[in-house]
Write a structure and sequence with these properties.
2 copies of one chain form a homodimer.
Chain A (H helix, E strand, L loop, with lengths): L2 E5 L5 H9 L4 E5 L2 H9 L5 E7 L6 H10 L5 E8 L3 E4 L12 E5 H6 L1 H7 L4 E5 L2 H11 L3 E5 L1 H6 L3 E4 L9 E8 L14 E9 L7 H10 L5 E8 L7 E7 L7 H11 L3 E12 L7 H4 L2
Parallel strand pairs in A: 1-2, 1-3, 4-14, 6-7, 6-8
Antiparallel strand pairs in A: 3-10, 4-10, 5-8, 5-9, 11-13, 11-14, 12-13
């Protein structure tokens, strides 16, 4: 049985992503993205799951930078899950919103529910925690008029009930997670149908000149290769030097991609393929009724 | 005197940015990016300073998304400061690295110092806090074998001394902060020389088709307008719809920009100018000797 490392602790959105694609697998939670990526790079775990975009638990940049500068582990799958934040209280709590005196959560979770808190719970005190899991654990201990903001997993982990579901401000807030594997052995995943296939490549421009990026994109455009994401990031060697992360909406093939790579190399660009992989869009875990009922 | 709202509490990197460009100004710290942006939008404060890129205190995405979807406040300046993390201890502490049993800090700060901790302090316990300021406050109270990771401001705020300077893994780690102002009144800033001028625009593509971005960039490329950053972001209306944030390396003018806008409008794109502004690259605050000496 392969162990899956993930950005923990238990109850994080990354944990939700792990549960969404793996069946009864051994898991190990790491507290930072570098720790988790080092673990898969050093063969402590067979696979790693870390947030790539719009995550509450760690910045995307940290993941991308670490994959580029520190470890050489390909992306083998992507998981996209909706971010849903709920208001969680102790199971013995019998009041309503107005009776909540203190809300506990991670800064980013509080920020994501900003409008709801402002309109519905403007008098509650806010206490910031290091994670949504820690917030749930505090509410489990304090009982009374305390509430936590977090996902369903953290409610289940600490035996809390859901007082209000989906209190986040934006309905279409998703997080992308990357599944990484160093040795390309077969992986036991749930039977999911891939929504699409992607190839992620990193392109470093030879120097900062106007129109360079335009030239790079030409190589994809005239081949009608669709890009689903492009982002420029500063190199760690100083301000002003950029590389680009480009997601191409198709699997790596033996014709188009090598041709693009040859064309970009002729322009003086450096290219690194970070992975070619299926993408799975999964639902957020649903509420189990015994947890929401009093 | 105008009040400057910023992503607080005191001692954050955003606070460092405020000190770098404003002289003896009234400030007010907010605990989340939306709160801070609402404050400037509702005229509670005259100006706001929030992280835009690579920040430890909040995701960039949150700032950009809020500026686009929730408030209409232009960027009037950008401040770039190096991220420097130091190991802070109680002034009464007389040991060395090996005597530190517990390190306190924000997850992102711990992650940024991952290599240092791994090599130099591998036996220390890690305790995660909601901010680097909270970590410093804990070390102030606990004394003994506790250390915090944070910047110089948080050391000064809590009277800690610096045991090791610059323990972050990457030397060239910078954070970009945006200064926002709703009413375009003259602002009293320190006398700094702008390193460059930028214009940030948001472009929404009419639909997802191959080469669309390439066409958009053509409008800039053939005018030799240099882009310093480009990033695609999903619209909140669902996956698959994208907008682009583009930083052009020159101030808005009466000829080139209107021509680009007309050309993009003809392609069916929507354009929004988020600001045209000077960029200031400033030094991280230096150590005052009386704080570092025992």
């Amino acid at each position: 049985m392969s162990t899956v490392g993930y950005l923990g602790p238990k109850g994080t959105f990354t944990n939700v992503a792990v549960d969404a694609i793996f069946d009864s697998v051994d898991t190990k939670g790491y507290r930072t993205i570098p720790e988790c990526l080092d673990a898969v790079n050093n063969d402590e775990v067979a696979l790693a799951v870390v947030p790539m975009e719009n995550a509450i638990e760690g910045t995307v940049h940290l993941t991308v930078d670490y994959l580029i500068h520190q470890v050489d582990v390909p992306i083998i799958a992507e998981v996209v899950i909706p971010i849903e934040q709920h208001l969680l209280v102790h199971p013995g709590f019998t009041g309503d919103l107005k009776d909540i005196e203190t809300i506990h959560s991670h800064t980013q979770a509080i920020a994501q529910c900003h409008q709801f808190i402002h309109k519905e719970m403007n008098n509650a005190e806010i206490e910031y925690t290091s994670s949504t899991g820690e917030a749930a654990s505090i509410v489990q201990q304090k009982k009374g008029s305390h509430a936590a903001i977090g996902n369903i997993l953290s409610a289940e982990e600490y035996g809390l009930k859901v007082l209000r579901t989906s209190i986040h401000d934006y309905e279409n807030n998703h997080t992308r997670f990357a599944v990484l594997q160093k040795n390309q052995k077969p992986v036991q995943m749930k039977e999911l149908t891939a929504n699409t296939y992607k190839t992620t490549i990193m392109v470093t421009l030879p120097s900062d000149y106007s129109g360079a990026l335009h030239q790079v994109l030409s190589a994809f455009a005239w081949r009608k290769m669709n890009l689903s994401k492009i982002e420029s990031r500063p190199m760690k060697t100083g301000l002003g030097n950029y590389f680009f992360i480009i997601d191409v909406n198709q699997p790596y093939d033996a014709v188009l991609f090598p041709a693009v790579q040859a064309e970009l190399a002729a322009l003086g660009c450096q290219i690194k393929v970070l992975g070619t992989y299926p993408c799975f869009h999964v639902e957020a875990p649903s509420l189990s009724t015994e947890k929401t009922a009093e």
